[in-house]
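[Discussion] Sanity-checking designs against the backbone

I'm trying to build intuition for which residues belong where. Below is a structure token string of 202 positions. I'd appreciate it if someone posts a full sequence so I can compare it with mine line by line.
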């Protein structure tokens, strides 16, 4: 009986993960915690212990994209990575690193290209954009560095066609420690331009 109960719990987690993945993809919800809550509401689940991990939602999202989007997802992801390459070349002096869904391959139609850049003064990034007559908006990101430390970092958001690029500006020493990933709690994967070039070739 215990095994059957565990099976039911696993099935419920899986259904919740798939529903949360659908919400992320179709509604553009970036926050996996919010996607989980919406999925639980929709499926009438009140037991928080049944909620899947963020990594389970990420896996379900990748699976959903392979099953239902296939080639169209691959084409869109390639396009986002092309935009990322152009932005990283433009901001090369700030040693940009690609992060998030465009790097992991789970980007949706709602995903932005997310870059970490490094500068003594955030205004230097703005000046670079201004030099190229690129309109931008100032933004801010809250990033968890460890269990106790959360940083609020400035950034700049601009568009390339219908794709939004969002840069978060770290001080130069921020290169040494990546923030925690909201997916698995480990240091966030950051890719330099050379790694992105390899992904584009593949």
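Best answer:
Here's mine. Compare freely.
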């Amino acid at each position: 009986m215990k095994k059957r109960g565990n099976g039911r719990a696993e099935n419920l987690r899986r259904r919740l993960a798939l529903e949360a993945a659908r919400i992320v993809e179709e509604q553009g919800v970036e926050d996996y915690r919010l996607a989980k809550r919406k999925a639980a509401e929709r499926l009438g689940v009140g037991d928080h212990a049944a909620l899947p991990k963020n990594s389970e939602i990420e896996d379900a999202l990748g699976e959903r994209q392979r099953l239902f989007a296939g080639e169209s997802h691959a084409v869109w992801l390639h396009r986002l990575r092309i935009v990322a390459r152009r932005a990283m070349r433009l901001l090369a002096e700030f040693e940009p690193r690609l992060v998030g869904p465009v790097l992991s391959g789970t980007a949706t139609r709602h995903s932005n290209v997310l870059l970490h850049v490094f500068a003594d003064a955030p205004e230097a990034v703005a000046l670079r954009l201004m030099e190229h007559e690129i309109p931008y908006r100032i933004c801010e990101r809250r990033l968890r560095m460890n269990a106790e430390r959360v940083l609020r970092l400035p950034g700049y958001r601009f568009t390339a066609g219908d794709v939004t690029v969002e840069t978060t500006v770290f001080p130069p020493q921020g290169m040494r420690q990546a923030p925690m990933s909201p997916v698995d709690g480990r240091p966030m994967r950051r890719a330099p331009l050379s790694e992105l070039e390899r992904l584009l070739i593949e």
